[in-house]
Amino acid sequence: MRRKWSFLDAGVAWLQTFLPAQVNIDFTERMRACLGMLAGLLITGLATRWMLGTAMDLPMLLAPIGASAVLLFGVPASPLAQPWAIVGGNMVSALVGVTCVYFLGVSMATAALATSVAVAAMFLLRCLHPPGGAVALSAVLGGPLIVALGYRYVIFPVAINSVLLMLFALLYNNLTGRRYPHAAQPDHGSKHNTTDLRPIDRLGFKPEDLDEVLQQYNQVLDVSRDDLESLFLQTEMHAYRRRFGEITCADIMSRDVVAAEFGTTLEEAWTLLRQHRIKALPVIDRARRVIGIVTLVDFMKNANLDVYASFDEKLRQLIRRTRTDHSAKPEVVGQIMSKPVQTAGHDVHIVELVPLLSDQSLHHIPIVNDERRLVGMVTQSDLIAALYRGRLSDVAVASQA
User: Is residue 131 part of a domain?
Assistant: First the structure.
């Protein structure tokens, strides 16, 4: 009895492997894709009829175009759904199918050969598009009308359907918040140099690590390499958040922020920097919304300190208030401040500040509340201290375990 149940359990477990995985997209995204397919196919069919007229007894929509619509609107980021994939893949497949019929005639063997050769051609031309296999098959088994068209089939209706649907997808996806086309980045390969990487990229996996794993995997992935790298990086960030707990900017920021306004004179701003021993002043308007930031670097640049000669004198000339009504040099903070300024919300997790402070060479990030009003400031030192305390907590927990 025990062996019988064990065998049954194994059979059930094996059958469960055939169940589809859950699709992790919400209702809004599903409706966006379905409405895009509805509108795209309808407009493509009507536009094709308008272009060809009723004189030609041709199908206005080719059946494989329905499969192309699934890719274009359901998974627009897929490498298989990009413009060259749909247009090039469908047209190359149609050309292969018609050529096979021309030399070998219509048969099941010709249909199988045309489909496999079409896939090989799409691999070679880097335009792999699954519906292309159906296009090649239709060229062979599509009936007397398709066969009679010969090479015209490549243009009518394959090319017309493909181009029209792709153009509508280009418009629709971008209007609904989906970037299309999803251009591939240049190959990474072994050209990476660790000195060229951003600071955050030197931690965790590196681009060449992903390239090597993909080469070992040796299968076509229905996701672009750059999207895959982005997902891995986001996963790392999520793991860091879980590791350090829910530490937000509000937990580590300096609340007694010294700020300046647009009309604050350079002399006053410099005095504030020196008195409070700080290196940056957020510039705010009357509603305490951040409109810029002025740092020691801004003073240096505007003092024309390209050479070391008379360094002190040049700085004094910049800061000193001009007594006349008109001046060619900057007089107030608003004239030298850096803008726009990168800010962060008070409820943002500190891990999200790491790319800003490491990769963008920022040293200070003004923190704003839900009304975009200045409530604090986070510096590189604040972030390092917070991450250090989080690391110490991990060590303490590990030692107790």
Answer: yes
